[in-house]
Amino acid sequence: MKKTILVAITLALMFFLRTESVRGQALEEMEQAEIAKTLPQSEFFQEKPAAVSESDGVPTGIESDSGKLNQGSEVIELAQNPGEEQARAETKKDGVLDETVDEWDPWEPFNEKTFWFNRQVDRFILKPVAKGYNAALPDLIRGGIANMFDNLDVTRRFVNNILQLKFAGAGRELARFAINSTAGIAGFFDVAGTALGIGKSDRDTGQTLGVYGIGHGPYLVLPLLPPLSVRDFFGFVADQAMYPLDYFIPIGASIGMSATEEISDRAATIDRFEGVEETVVDLYGSVRNAYFQRRAADLKK
Fold first, then answer.
1. What pTM does this model have?
2. Under DSSP, is residue 229 helix (H, G, I), strand (E, B) or coil?
């Protein structure tokens, strides 16, 4: 069921991206036409007679009042290729894409509406359930359930450590899984971490794509999903496909486990973010900024 929903969202997103691409191209053509119409009338770009080479009589260019070549064609070229400016803003350091430059959010109206919807779902459904979950279960049980879900997510971390050539991290993930699945009673206790000091190497497919030079793309907020970029959305779909139990248990059980994991995650952070919504002036902008900062830090791990 979860995979079916993700496939549907992926198809919808591809259609949305295609629609926005066509719309953006039309807007660029309109802007180009406006620039072409206004530039010749601009005092700064008034054309002067082209200087003619004394040797061959070929015009060498159009000069502005400052005596330099007219740069109107360059302005038009930039208007035709706004993506090039975005690419220039995304620089590389030590072979890793630097994504701290800007927060690209061309779909902000759509994202803000979806962000508001997700807030209402959290406020009226998820948060009350998470509070009841905390009240009903002691810390030991809640922590053990969270540990079990984390232990089952080893495939994603192991595969992405390998793809990022982090072989030490991949080895730690295998060791943690083996120890916690046995001595930790199916992952209920984090024996590897607490007793042996073997820490996680948490890596995901979106991060792997970034390591290989794929930019994050536009910021994207979809219903019932965490904040993402276009790159991280496709990474998220790949990560979900690596969850092993989905291939061995019935759909009903898979949905129940997904819901329990979501409640467990929300319950673990409910105190940390208590009151944030009421104190932050621009919650949408703050969440977006925090997302890009976190993902930029993830690439530098």
1. 0.69
2. strand
